[in-house]
Amino acid sequence: MERIIFVLTNVHLTSEIKMKKITRLTLLCAVLGFMIPQAKAASFVGDTEGQPTYNRVTEDGTSSFIGSTVPFSLFSVTVDTTGLYNFSVVAGNSALLDTFITLYNAPFNSLDPETNFIVANDNTSQSNQALGSSFVQPLTSGSTYVLAVSGLTNDDYGTFSGSVNPVTGPGTASVTAVPEPSTTTLLAIAASAVAWRIARKRRVA
């Protein structure tokens, strides 16, 4: 009888110890889950209607014939973790935009769109997004990239939405709209003019 009680007591104690281990393991996993950085997608929207135009490149990085004067929007892209990231852009309600996206290493020059070219895509592989574009590209933390969103042809323009998110593992992308090239050019000209006037005053003095 004492032996049976001893065995039952051991079984009970063993089960209790296992439950405590499981509980501790569960708590540890929960804590680690909060500590490990989670992947986050960066979303953005835009409209190419009325935007400046440029002669976009093709998917192999050479000058396009059918997209010689396409309206486009620019976005600056950075990531906090090196890895593979998925870029996806789809047209809005307007049927006038067949999207085309191009990624560059910064800086981007609309007058020389073949320089710093990385990758481009016309049609996404997802059949339900016929008017969308997407690609997967390795990005490096600390580097700045420029995403150009345009239409396939000169007559393609309209609203769009997009996202940049890590394919696997943690990582967060930051996507910021870049001022229109015309605005940027005017600012550069103004800055040059101010610098020239200051230099002239110094010479006169």
Give a brief outline of the structure.
The chain is of the alpha+beta class. It is built from two helices and ten strands, in the order H-E-E-E-E-E-E-E-E-E-E-H.
Describe this structure in words.
- The protein has 205 residues and is an alpha+beta fold.
- Helix content is 28%, strand content 32%.
- The chain has helices at residues 2-35, 181-204, and strands at residues 42-47, 53-54, 70-79, 83-91, 99-105, 117-121, 133-139, 145-151, 159-166, 173-177.
- The strands form 2 sheets. Strands 2, 3, 5, 6, 8 and 10 form a 6-stranded antiparallel β-sheet that branches.
- The longest helix is centred in the N-terminal third of the chain and has 34 residues, at 2-35.
- It is globular, with a radius of gyration of 27 Å.
- The chain starts with a helix and ends with a helix.
- Residues 4-9 and 25-37 have low confidence and may be disordered.
Attribute tags:
6-stranded antiparallel beta sheet, single chain, 28% helix, alpha+beta, 4-stranded antiparallel beta sheet, 205 residues
Question: What's the SSE blueprint?
Answer:
Layout: H1 2-35, E1 42-47, E2 53-54, E3 70-79, E4 83-91, E5 99-105, E6 117-121, E7 133-139, E8 145-151, E9 159-166, E10 173-177, H2 181-204
Please give the share of residues in helix: 25-40%
**What is the average per-residue confidence, as pLDDT, rounded to a whole number?**
78
First-to-last CA distance:
112 Å
Based on the structure, what is the oligomeric state of the protein chains? single chain
Number of helices: 2
SSE class: alpha+beta
Query: Ranges with pLDDT <50 over ≥5 residues?
Result: 4-9, 25-37
Instruction: Give the number of DSSP strands.
Output: 10
Question: In angstroms, what is the radius of gyration?
Answer: 27 Å
| Range of strand content | 25-35%
